Amino acid sequence: MLGSEAVPKALARDYRSAELSAADRTMLAYAVKLTAAPHSVTQQDVEALKREGFDDAGVLDICQVVSYYNYVNRLADGLGVEMEAVWSEEDLTLTRSDFDVRVDAKRAASEVK
Q1: How do residues 37-53 score in pLDDT, each as one tens digit?
Q2: DSSP for 36-67?
């Protein structure tokens, strides 16, 4: 997985399309669920992580990292922080236009509610 340019791009678009181990896939499913619908995370989700070999400390690490990134992103979004213009297309996993499309779609979805 390391050193592959295809994996980060697949992860950025949809982790389910990336070549991953079962443990990584389970971890990312948990991360997505914790991000998108934190109220729906259950003990079964934690048990799925443990079945893939994560111990209590590993589950806690995953939860803390996901929660921290969610916090930082919500803080940046809440303050209207925009992506810095100094980043070149080569530096990005998603192109700037892909990123903007995703942001616009999320904004439109939140306006509908």
Answers
A1: 999 999 999 999 999 99
A2: H-GGG--HHHHHHHHHTT--HHHHHHHHHHHH
Residue identified by tokens 């499913």 is 29
**How distant, in Å, are the alpha carbons of 12, 73, 80, 88, 92 from that of 83?**
16, 11, 10, 11, 11
Residues 52 and 27 in one domain: yes
How many Cβ atoms are within 10 Å of 30's Cβ, its own excluded?
Answer: 21
How long a stretch of residues is the chain?
A: 113
pTM: 0.76
30 & 64 share domain: yes
Which residue range forms the structural domain that includes residue 94? 84-113
Q: Tell me 17's DSSP state.
A: G
CA 85 to chain centre: 22
Q: Look-up: residue for tokens 């991360």?
A: 31
